[in-house]
Each structure stands twice: as structure tokens, then as C-alpha cells.
Amino acid sequence: MTGSKLTAAMIMMGLFLGNAIAGSVPGESTILTSYLIRSFSLSSRLPADVAPSATRVLVESPLPLSPSWPGFTPPAPQARAFHPRPWLAAAEVAGINLGVWAFLHYAGDAHYAYISWETMRDNFRDGFEWDQSRYFVNFYHHPYHGYLYYSAGRANGLGYWGASLCAFGGSLMWETVMEKFRPSINDLVTTTYGGIVYGEIGYRFSALVRKREARGVGRIWREAVGAIFDPVGALNRLLNGRDDSVSGAPGRPDDETPLHGEILLAGPVILRSASLEGAKAVPLVAFTLNYGDSAGKGWGGRPFDLFTVQGRLRWGPDRPHLSLSIAGVLTAKDLPSTGGSSHDLGVYQYYEYYGIDTLRLGSSSIAGGLTSLHVLSAKTQLKLAARLGWLVLGGTDDFYYKGPERREYNYGTGWLAGAEAGFGSRRFEYLSATWRHYGLFTLQGQKGSESWDIFQGQARIPVWRKLGAGLQIEYCERNIKFEDQEPGERRVFEIRAFVTCQF
Amino acid sequence: MKSKSLKRILTLIPALTLAAVFLLAPRPGRAEDGKSLSVGLNAGAAFVTEKGYGHGLRYGGGILWQPSPRFGLEVLFEKYDVPVNEGAEGLTPGEMRTNALLFNCLFYLTGRGLLRPYAIVGVGFYFIGYSPDDPVVGPPELDFVDRMALQLGGGLDVRLSSRLAITGNVRYNMVKTWVETLPRTDPIRDTDPTLQNILHLYALAASLGLKLSF
Lengths: 503, 214
Prior knowledge:
Chain A is built from 10 helices and 12 strands. Chain A is an alpha+beta fold and 503 residues long. The longest helix of chain A is centred in the middle third of the chain and has 25 residues, at 185-209. By secondary structure, chain B is mainly beta. Chain B has 2 helices and 12 strands; from the N terminus they run ααββββββββββββ. In chain B, strands 1-2-3-4-5-7-8-12 form an 8-stranded antiparallel beta barrel. A two-stranded antiparallel ribbon of chain B has the order 6-10. In chain B, strand 1 and strand 2 (55-68) form a beta hairpin. The A-B interface holds A 13, 17, 20-21, 23-26, 98, 102, 105-106, 109, 111, 114-119, 122, 180-182 and B 67-71, 105, 107, 111, 121, 123, 125-127, 145-148, 150, 174, 176-177, 187-189, 192-194, 198.
């Protein structure tokens, strides 16, 4: 059995444990029965001599109920609603942790999975520390782990905040008792914060993929793709039976929320800084997904009713560089506007990691800002956005580090500023630009501060229908002021040609 | 000849008695009655599968909480001692003494009835000691490192009355650990397990006991 299969099996085992509990929660599996009994209990409406038997017949009868006694008006059917199951969510979170631990210990023989009462006692006694794990582990793997916890909460009917608590609780449990190492403060932050963001967008995308009226093969592939986005939710649906007619049922198909975006394939490099090496035909795939209406219209009152995901995979001279930026609206307020334009004041949750060549930055941030959509003419729009906020925890490469330990990056906190602009006509975006500024004060690593400026701009022209072509410019600048080092900076830029498909 | 027949009869008596108890058990004893808390005591044998280790008596007791008819959470203490024989890696003949605190999930296949089979999945904290037959005076002293381990198994509850049940189960306790030299100078987390000679002290623990519900 391969590792991934075994992991999946272990996770499924953990989830199964939780679901076995769920199946036995009193009342959970009898919503329909109790509804029928409640809705059609006639004992109080019928003569005493017929009431008991009539009630029994109605409750037990598999036939459609159509009482026709004079003066009897059946009560209007009550909409069935899904009741959140927080205890089951907690059990699934614990099950995920035990499943992952069992895999790591028995199949992977991971040294950190040798735990005991002593390691747990020592962890509580010694408290939190900054861990030494590699960048990719801390900024990609850990959020994925948190994503499973969060999904367990969502799959059991909890909302954003309840599921966030699952992500935090699962991470806290893992850090304190499921590894022999001391609990890591940075892991707790990135697992929780990244897990919330990954989990919520996965949950939303899975609902978009599923379709209520889909049957047969169509239903199978939709549920399968939904399972990729929301594995824990999909397994819950499979084990508990999916009844999408129940109001608020987790993973219920979403037929209403719009999804727009772009897939971009870049090829030849037109121009770039001398320090960038490697093939000039840089394979680069990028995408942008805008969930919900961009400004003013799509806010439904729940976190992440609007979000944007931007991803990019760039094959550098040595290895692939993955960049990802996710920004979701936590709360928003529509401002008065005229002429079809809209203005939206919001608080945004960001989870990002950026990489080009040897420049890498990962961050968890929260920012406030304004998003405006100006309708210039009937078919022309200009979108502008500005952000300012707190970079809660970021990680950046430490080029000066020569120690024996594995961690070669600094942890810091600071601020985030940004601006975005986009110009489109006839549903085609011609111009777009994004600027981000990150300022970090080091918490762990090289003492000092640093700042990052990242600019990405695209100019496109439509070629045929939704297909287009254009040029992309990317600029990244990093300035460092570390106590033990000379101040320094590094700038890289690259101009690439690309083809695009907008939808 | 006589002694063989006597043995057969003596074997049959408990079996027939047990069968009679099952068959004549009062109806309430066979049905789910909503009791959610139980205490149990059990005894049996543990067989450690690692080369050089033997088998020995095991006994234990614990509390079971059933929030629902099909699911139970059990906290169990168990103890078993097995001989360490010639051929055991890194140790001279002696005895391995195990005390364990187990946290088990019990999944009942049926929510009610006289016979209630169940599956066990859980984790246990194992505190394992070693005493050689010929103790060495002074250091170095050898001991097993305590571990948390997964356990899997299954069992059967036979309900004799609404309060009393006979329970039998078989569990596989999957302890991975190593032998360390005492006294330990650093916290155990600073020892790299990948550099140790890992022992798979997997034990098959079979037990039979009584369970009293409240």
C-alpha cells in the first residue's frame, strides 16, 4: 500500500470513528420520523375512541398522508433544518490526529511520532517554541493539516467561526500531545490560519461542483471532484447519507454563487534581470478565481461569501516555485453608490506564499480596505482596491544562515499594504495590476527588519472569444536591515508573453 | 478411562451452565435498557510476538461509558508480565512488566440484544519495566522506554441481565519501543529513535471478564 493510500485509510479510519458516534446520536437519524409524528399527530384532533389507532396508522403507514376529516387542516410542513453536531466535529478532529499519528508512527516510522506520557508531560512543562521545520512543510503542509480539521467542523454543520475553533483545537492537540517535539507557536498559527482559509475555500468550491439534479456518472464525478476540494465533508456525506433537501446541510450544492476567473499559460521570457537564470522558455501556469461578485453585490453576511484565489506554478532554474494568494472577506459593508457602480468596505483574511527564484515569502495577514467597481460606460468597468493591515506571521528566506539546523528562514510580524486595479470591457479584462508591500520585524532568526514590494501587471487583448494573449511583468524587491549584517537589497523582474482564457 | 470421562463432564458443566444462563436469561437482560455506565474486571493472557519474549497472565479493570447503544468509550487499566528469554535482543533473561492505561472506542455491531459483538480501536500509554533474573549490582541498568501505542481488536458482550454481562475480547497492542540504559541524562525527546534498536513488543491480549452496568 502506498503512503498516500495509507494516509487516506488512516484518516478515513479516524473519520469513521467519529461517524460511528454520529450515527448513534439520538434523534439525528430520525429527523424524518419525528417530523412526521410531529406534523401529523392527530390524537388531539380526533375523537378519543379513534385517536390512538388513527395516529398509529398515520405514523406507521408508508403511504402518502391525506387526512380528510371534516374541519381538519394539515399543518404546513416545516422546513427541515440541519442541526450542527459540534461533538462529532470534535471527535472527527481527534480521529484525524490519531489517524495521521498512526500512519506516521507505524507506516512512516517518523522519529517525532514516538510519543509517550513522558513526552506529553515534557511538552506541557516546557511550553511553546519556534520550530525548525522546512519552509514548505511549515507554510504548505501544516495549513493542509489544518484544512482537514476545519473541514471536519464544516462537515458537521458548524459555521466559519465554529469550524475555525476546530482548526485551532486540532492544531493545539497535535502540537501538545501528538509529537515528541515541544509545541511550536508558528505551527499553531499557520496550521490554524492557513487551515481556515484552505478549508473554507475548499468547502465553497465543493458546493459549487456538486449539483442537486445530477445523476449517474455526472453525479459520481461531481461528488468525486467535490471530495478533492472537501475530503472530510465528502466522507461525511458518504457515511451519513446526503440529503441535500435539508436546509443548511453541509456540502449542499450551490447553484447561485458566480465564479469568474482566468487561466494563464506563459511561455517565452521577453526580458528579465541578469540574476535570473534558467531556460528562457519558462513554463508557467497561473490562475485567478473570483468567487462571488467582486464588490458590493455578493456579500451575503457570512465570512468568505466573497474571495479570490490566485495561484501560480513557475518552473525556476532549480525547482518549481509555487505562489498562492487567497483573500476572503470576513465582513463587509456596502457604501452608497450611483450609476451601477459599487463600493465595498471590508475586512479581509489573507493567506499567501510567494516565490520567485530564491526569494520566498509566506504570510498570514488580516487587512481592511475598500473595493470599488466603477461603471464607466454600459460595457466598460474599472475595478480598484486598496488594503492595509496586520501581517500576523510571515516567513522569509535567511540567506545569511549557515547553521546546522534545517530552518533557513526568519519569522516576523509587521504590516501589509496593497492595491489592485483592473480594466475590462465586454466581459474581457484588458489590464490588471497588483501591488503588495510587506514590512516585517523579525521575531525569530536574523534580528532586524525587512520590506518586500511585489508588483505584477498584465496587458491582454482578446484573440478569439474568451481566449486572449498578452504580456506580463513581475517585479520583486526585498530590502533587509538586519543587526548583524550590512543592509542589502535584491531586485528581480521578468517580462513574459502569455496566452489566456477568461471565464 | 474414568478420569477422562470425569474431565469431559467437568468441562461440559461450565459450558452447559453458561448456555443455560444465556437461554434462560430474563428478557430485560437481552434488551437495551439505557444504562450507560459500566465497570468491568477481566483477566486472560498476553502473548508478546517479538522474538525472545513469552506469554503471561494479564488482568485489568476499567470504566465504560456508552453515550449511545452502539458506541462506548472505555478507560481501562491492564497489567501483564511476560518472561524475557534467551534470544531477546539486548537483554538477558528476566521479566518484562507492563502496566498500561488504555483509552478505547468500542463500536457495537448491534445496539441491543443478548449477544453484542464489538470492535475496539484505541490508544494506550504503556509503562514497561524490565527486571533481569540475575540483577547486576550498580549501573548500567537497562529498561524499556515508555510508549503510547495503537491497539485494535474485537470482543463480545453476553448480557446475563440488565446489569450484568460477560465480556470477552482480543486486542493487539502495538508497542514500538527500545531498551535504554539508565540513568537517563537528557529528556527522552532528545533521543533519536531512528538510531535505536526498535523492538516491536506487539502483544496479543485475550481476556474474559464481567461487566456491571449502572
